[in-house]
Amino acid sequence: MIGPPRPQPADDGDSDDAMIGPPRPPLASGSVNGAEDDGVMMGPPRPPPTDDSEDPMIGPPRPAAPEEDDDGEMIGPPRPRPPPGSRSDESDSDEDSDAEEQDQYRIPLSNEIVLKGHTKIVSALAVDHSGSRVLSGSYDYTVQMYDFQGMNARLQSFRQLEPSEGHQVRNLSWSPTSDRFLCVTGSAQAKIYDRDGLTLGEFVKGDMYIRDLKNTKGHISGLTCGEWHPKTKETILTSSEDGSLRIWDVNDFKSQKQVIKPKLARPGRVPVTTCAWDREGKSIAGGIGDGSLQIWNLKPGWGSRPDILVEKGHSDDITGLKFSSDGRILLSRSFDGSLKVWDLRRMKEPVRVFEDLPNHYAQTNIAFSPDEQLFLTG
């Protein structure tokens, strides 16, 4: 029986007496009173039978059966790592070894910013000794001055200079105390600026009609390079297309202290394309337009005769020179697409030659890392 129990008949045996409780529902069609076909249904009607596949769902929806797919969403705890020696373990090991190799050299690659201040190639860069100010020079004839301590999110320079109108900027160099900097352009006259970009002076230009360069007070053709003395804040070095190197006192802009003429295979004028001091300021290196390397040691009574001469250092113009801190190694970069490593104690042949390095600009130079385990070039 479905539904609440049927009430018992009265004791007087009269089934037609008043019914106690809710009215009895009518008999189903086709049934006879008192027959036991289906009986009278009590409660809500029974839903009609349906196929098993279409049974109505009672309660919350049944979760879908997981598909047999390796890429499906994982249910339960994470899958344990593969055993040592598997392919994934080897891949992780390779990634770790690559990271360790980068950490070994400590190359600063984690962060960078892009300073957009020039319209043509950047030909010169100089960072002061505190690392707070950066100078950049360009073929657009300008110098941009950046101060990292006062820089905002726009990354703009705080000052722009045009040292010599219509002349490319070829080199920039801070003084040892970072209170001044040297600017070398394609003109014959180098300039000195203070830390804030104010002009302190301009070196004199020589008389272009005097044939002997030692008798001129300054360069007579465009400059190619220049560097401040690494130890003495009053001394700078410049090189020029006129075929000479000159040492200057920054307190006297009217005349140089010393004129250096390279040794040439034949008489004439060959440009000095680049120059460099060693770390102690006791030696000078010059790259000559004929591909020769020449080094002078500054000592009492020294003159223009080089102490070291490599006539065929490169097959084209030399664009960059750099001494190691101990003064034993010299790096040279050239238009011939090579970078050479020289031991100054044995200069007959380079220690190492790196070739197939494109060089399209006369200011392509080189630099050592702080620990001198690496060097880089443009």
Automatic annotation (TrEMBL):
<dbReference type="GO" id="GO:0005634">
    <property type="term" value="C:nucleus"/>
</dbReference>
<dbReference type="InterPro" id="IPR019775">
    <property type="entry name" value="WD40_repeat_CS"/>
</dbReference>
<dbReference type="InterPro" id="IPR020472">
    <property type="entry name" value="WD40_PAC1"/>
</dbReference>
<feature type="region of interest" description="Disordered">
    <location>
        <begin position="1"/>
        <end position="109"/>
    </location>
</feature>
<dbReference type="InterPro" id="IPR036322">
    <property type="entry name" value="WD40_repeat_dom_sf"/>
</dbReference>
<protein>
    <submittedName>
        <fullName>Putative WD repeat-containing protein 70</fullName>
    </submittedName>
</protein>
<feature type="repeat" description="WD">
    <location>
        <begin position="115"/>
        <end position="156"/>
    </location>
</feature>
<dbReference type="Pfam" id="PF00400">
    <property type="entry name" value="WD40"/>
</dbReference>
<feature type="repeat" description="WD">
    <location>
        <begin position="311"/>
        <end position="352"/>
    </location>
</feature>
<keyword id="KW-0677">Repeat</keyword>
<keyword id="KW-0853">WD repeat</keyword>
<dbReference type="InterPro" id="IPR051858">
    <property type="entry name" value="WD_repeat_GAD-1"/>
</dbReference>
<feature type="compositionally biased region" description="Acidic residues">
    <location>
        <begin position="91"/>
        <end position="102"/>
    </location>
</feature>
<dbReference type="GO" id="GO:0035861">
    <property type="term" value="C:site of double-strand break"/>
</dbReference>
<dbReference type="InterPro" id="IPR001680">
    <property type="entry name" value="WD40_rpt"/>
</dbReference>
<dbReference type="InterPro" id="IPR015943">
    <property type="entry name" value="WD40/YVTN_repeat-like_dom_sf"/>
</dbReference>
<feature type="repeat" description="WD">
    <location>
        <begin position="216"/>
        <end position="258"/>
    </location>
</feature>
